[in-house]
């Protein structure tokens, strides 16, 4: 009986800890400009993030250039997964192509594959959400492979809190989708 009480108290303590955390989702935003691309079916690999950005915590840059987070302020979903899904959604809306995150869910195979490797993903001390890295597009219908680097800086609204950071991230991912559609596919 003692063991059940201890287990129950432990579970209650764990539940209490998780209730103190607040989660923030990147809000849905319009995809914007339409762009014609050379493929009708595009698979998006899971977006690769730096070690710190893989965690659920929302990271900020300090005045000294260090990175800090607060364990009680979290992303609503796994960052790699949510950014991959956001990027896929925007690319589909922008291009009109059938776009899906890996694994490819359709019978007819994808004609090309997009890989994105993010090197920096954080709220800077200067009030800007920074996202930089490289994208790679496998051979498409014309047989060419493409790649390019990106640096997207999105202003964070005045307050600079977690919801403003999430909104800036949503814009940055949308801007990345537009850039890749225009230059890479």
Structure notes:
This protein has 185 residues and is α/β, with parallel strands linked by helices. It has a single domain, classed as Rossmann fold (3-Layer(aba) Sandwich), CATH 3.40.50. The protein is built from 4 helices and 8 strands, in the order H-E-E-H-E-E-H-E-E-E-E-H. The protein has helices at 2-19, 51-54, 79-95, 162-183, and strands spanning 22-24, 41-44, 57-61, 67-75, 98-101, 112-123, 128-137, 146-155. The strands form 2 sheets. The protein has a 5-stranded mixed sheet, with helices on one face. A 3-stranded mixed sheet has the order 1-4-3. The radius of gyration is 19 Å and the shape is elongated. The model is unreliable at 1-18 (pLDDT under 50). Residues 33-181 form the ABC-type transport auxiliary lipoprotein component domain. This is ABC-type transport auxiliary lipoprotein component domain-containing protein. InterPro entries: ABC_trans_aux.
């Amino acid at each position: 009986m003692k063991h059940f009480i201890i287990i129950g108290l432990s579970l209650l303590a764990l539940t209490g800890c998780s209730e103190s955390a607040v989660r923030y989702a990147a809000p849905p935003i319009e995809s914007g400009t339409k762009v014609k691309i050379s493929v009708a079916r595009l698979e998006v690999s899971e977006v690769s993030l730096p070690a710190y950005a893989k965690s659920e915590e929302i990271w900020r840059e300090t005045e000294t250039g260090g990175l800090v987070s607060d364990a009680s302020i979290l992303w609503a979903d796994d960052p790699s997964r949510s950014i991959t899904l956001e990027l896929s959604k925007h690319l589909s809306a922008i291009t009109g192509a059938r776009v899906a995150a890996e694994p490819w869910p359709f019978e007819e195979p994808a004609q090309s594959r997009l890989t994105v490797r993010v090197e920096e993903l954080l709220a800077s001390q200067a009030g800007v959400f920074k996202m930089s890295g490289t994208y790679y597009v496998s051979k498409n219908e014309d047989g060419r492979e493409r790649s390019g680097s990106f640096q997207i800086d999105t202003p964070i609204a005045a307050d600079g809190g977690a919801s403003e950071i999430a909104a800036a991230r949503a814009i940055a991912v949308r801007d990345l989708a537009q850039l890749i559609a225009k230059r890479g596919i």
